[in-house]
Amino acid sequence: MVRLRTWVEFFLVFGVCLIGCDLPAAEIKDRAEAEGKLMFYASFNAADSKTLTDGFKQLYPKIDATFYRTTDAALMERILTEGRAGQNLWDVAMTTSFYGHNLKKRGLFAAYDSPERKYFREGYKDPQATWTSIYTNYGAFGYNTRNVPKASVPKSYADLLKPEWKGQIGMDSRPYEWFGTMVKAMGDEKGLSFMRELAKQAQLRSGRNLVAQLVAAGEFKGSLTAYSQTFEVLKPAGAPVDWVYLNPVFANIHPTGISAKAPHPNAAKLFVDFVLSKRGQELIRGMNRIPDRIDTPPEQARLMEGIKPAFAPNEVLENFQRYAKMFDEMFGAR
Hints:
The chain is an alpha/beta fold. α6 packs across α7 and α6 (176-186) crosses α13 (320-331). The chain has 13 helices and 12 strands. The strands form 2 sheets. Strands 1, 2, 3, 4, 5, 11 and 12 form a 7-stranded mixed β-sheet that branches. A 5-stranded mixed β-sheet has the order 8-7-9-6-10. The protein folds into 2 domains: 29-136 and 253-300, Periplasmic binding protein-like II (D-Maltodextrin-Binding Protein, domain 2, 3-Layer(aba) Sandwich), CATH 3.40.190; 140-244 and 307-331, D-Maltodextrin-Binding Protein, domain 2 (3-Layer(aba) Sandwich), CATH 3.40.190. Mean pLDDT is 93; it is low at 1-21.
């Protein structure tokens, strides 16, 4: 009986190791090169997608890395449509937090604890290792520097409720994740009270980029739902804009993970290792984005200074439609 139990315990442990233990890096590389292909699904633009796949191919020339890019919502629909058709075409996907949450929930992301994940802070990586964020957009208050004196630049969310800002704050018309995240970060009672008062101050427009451009044009003195980077990209053309962070700061992460049915699983691991590596994160920094790796700060230190990031909690992601309805009713969104 003792001998039988010993053998059972041995096979249980050995079996777990066969399933869960990572292959040596050299063996993963050999297998990846034998697979010879990689398909990356991305929710950022084609130029940036190409930068990442080209950088990967420079490191691993035997692997033909290609990409497909579209919006986060369209990407999710494509993945689900392919799944229903029994087509397993993608290896790695990068999307936004709501869709990353849903890919994990549906079992479409495989767990992979890349050795590079140790360089990423909590909140920027899934505890079960199904995804790691490769860059983050941080919500900022942007303002027109010609129309807003330095003394009037808000220092807190409460400052936005002052009479001088009435009708002068532009907002995206569908910032549902921002809304839910900020309500929870402030505390339900305080957060909802603030949002009701903010609704009296704000005007809605369709899209963060448009709102930022309208601030630059002087139609609004400021805006609340765009990102710091949204305004940074307007500055080189001479736009009279700047921005400040108001804590807590909405952090729109970009979860990146491997398909649970990846056609090229070893190439997928190499690609995830690459985009999480310092080399990959430096490429992302070169796109004027804010990398999430702790030893790869953004070009401008102020893009991360003093931030208390607020990530979309599961309560918001699981009840997305409820928060969307609350926002629409409160702000009169159409």
